[in-house]
Amino acid sequence: MTAGPASATRPHNRKQLIVEAAGQVFSERGYHAASMEEIAAGVGISAAALYRHFPNKYALFAECANIMVDRLVAALDEWPPEAALPDVLAALARVTVAHRASGGLYRWEARYLDRDDRRLLRAKFGQVVGRVTELVGREFRLPEEGLRAVAALGAIGSVTMHHTSIAQRRVEEMLVASALRVAATDPAAAAGSAGLVELPAQPVPRTRRAEILAAAIPLFARDGFANVTNGQIAQAVGLAPSAIYRHYPGKVDILVAACLQAAGLLAQAVDRSLHQATDPRSAVVALTAAYVAYSFEHNALTSVAEAEIVGLPPDLQRPLILAQREHIAVWEQQLRLARPDLDRRQARLLAHAGLGVVVEAGRALRWRDTPANRDAVTALVMGALGT
C-alpha cells in the first residue's frame, strides 16, 4: 500500500514548525487570546492535525515556553568552561535573534504555567544565569556580578520584545556590545541619581471607579488578567460583583484604564525628567533615572500594562501602542543627540536594550524600591546605552 500525497509531502519537522508558529502567536497575542485554530492555520494544517501532536493548548504552550531556554542551554553547552565572555554572549545573542519572534514568551506569559512547569523553567534559566554570572565575575572584577549578568542577558533578550528591523548580524553585534558594557559597569556608577527624580504621584482613588481600578491592578499583576474575576475585584473593594458594571462595561475596560493610567504617568515622568537637562548626555541620564524610578514605584501598574496589552482587541490596543511608540521615540531622539554615531534604528534597538535591563535587573532585585537599587539599575542601563 502506497502513501497518499498528503503523507508524502508531510514535512519531517512538522512538530518543530508547529512550536515555532505557536511561540510567535503566543508572544503576539498572549496565551489566553491565542487559539489552536490560529496556530494550525499558521502552519498550514487543520486543528485536528495539530491535536495529533499536542493534546491541548496548554501542552503546546509549555513546550513553547521551554524550547527557547533549551536552545540557550544548548548554545552554552557548546562552549568549554574557560570560554571568553564575548564568545558566550555572542552565542546567546545568535540564538535569541534567530528566534526573536517567539523568544519573548517567557518574559510575561510564563506566569500561566502551572507550578511544576514554572519551577522547571526557572531551573533552566538558572543554569544560563549561573554560567554567565561566573564569566562576568571572572572578566570584570566589580561588585554584584549576578546583577550585572542578569542585566546583560536582559539587554540581549530585549530584541524579542520589539520589531525594529536591522540586519541580523548587526543586531547581534550591537546586542553583544551592549551586554558587555552592562557587564563591565560598576552598579555604583550612578550613585545619587535616584535623588534627582521627582515622579508624579499615582492618583488617590476618590471615586468608586478609581477604587475599582486601584484594587484590580495588583490582582492583574499577581495572577494575570485572564485569571482574575470580577468577583475578586468586587470583593477587594467591598462591592457585589454586579456593582462593577455600573462603573465599567466589562473587565477589559478596567484593563484599558490601567494601561492608559500607566502611559499617562510615564509621559509625565519623562517630561519632568527632561525639563531641566542641560546637555544631551544629562538628558539621557535624566530620562534613564526617571524610567527606572517609575518602574520601581509603579511596578504593578507597569507589569500589567506591558504584559496584558497583547491580549486586547485591536481597537483598544491602538492608543496604547501609539503611547508606547511615542515613549520609544523620546529615547531614540535623546540617544541620537548624545550619540551622533547612531542612526534611528540603532538608537531604537539600544533604547529597547536599556528597557530590557530595567525589567530583568528589577526582577532580580525583587523590585525592592531603595535609592541604592534605583541607582544600580540606572548605572546598568547607561552602560547598555553606551553613553
UniProtKB/TrEMBL annotation:
Residue ranges annotated for the HTH tetR-type domain, each copy included? 12-72, 206-266
Protein's UniProt keywords contain DNA-binding? yes
Asked if Ribosomal protein is a keyword of the record, the answer is: no
Gene3D superfamilies, A to Z:
Homeodomain-like, Tetracycline Repressor, domain 2
Query: Which domain of life, per UniProt?
Result: Bacteria
Task: Identify the keywords attached in UniProt to this record, alphabetized.
Answer: DNA-binding
Question: Where does this protein bind DNA?
Answer: 35-54, 229-248
What PROSITE patterns does the record tag this protein with? Answer: HTH_TETR_1, HTH_TETR_2
Indicate what this protein is called per its UniProt record: TetR/AcrR family transcriptional regulator
